[in-house]
What does this fold into?
Amino acid sequence: MIPLLLLSTSALAANPDVPWLWAHAALGGGAWPSGLQLDTRLQARTPLYATRSEFFADNFAGAGLRAAITPAYVLAGPRVSFAPAAFFNMDLSANVQRYFHTSFGPLPFDQLTSGKPDAVRAARGTESFATTALTATWEPTLQAEADPIVVFDAWTLEIRHMDKPADQTAPYVYEPFWDLVLAWDDAVIEQQGAVMGMVWKGDNGTRKLWIGATVRHHWAVVSTDRSLVLGGVLLANPGKKVLGGPDLILQVLPYILDDADMRAGPPNVQFQIGWDVNRPFHH
It folds into this structure.
């Protein structure tokens, strides 16, 4: 739901210098649109090479699995990560996504402006349907640090196919994760950048407080639906002595561009709490 959590704890964090097991668990929620997701990831990771350069430190390659569940769907699939340098990393994944027949699930749309706000979709809850989607995703990220400033630029390209039930005739479908009206076969592109100041840096398990601004733009290639938000982001961590040191993220993102019935509404609000665990493999 919020890519900044993984960005802030990947190449900018100290990785073991031997192969290790990486586990990640995060619980996130949002409003306007409303959402809730439990996301878990497990990877075997290994350093690529030894270096004394800060620009190429914390390099690694990893492979494993990801699983996520929300009130709208369950998702699972393999995931490969590659970070050749401290300033660049990317993830490649393929997933099977099973949507539930609930009021939170996908909805048929005859046109892009049929109404995406929560209340409008809730009123059409009986029109939701169960279906399956297949997705392939590429997520490259550039990141830089010049104390006390951190800059991120994260991209996502997702190619997706959603099975169209035999009783559906609408040319489009509302997809709850992206909050976009998509074609049944479509590609979604997302770009999120952030500039953050480190009040407390958070090295070596100490408390962390980063505050800054972020912009997020996502759009569908085939349907042409899109959304642009700009707002504030806060990343905090109480330190390893408190509940294992979870990362806490809050984003408040007013809409700049979306459907006419969304622009005047409240901002998109997202919150996430997550943990990363690194355990070196024993010889």
Summary: The chain is about 5% helix and 60% strand. The first strand starts at residue 20 and ends at 31. The chain has a mean pLDDT of 90.
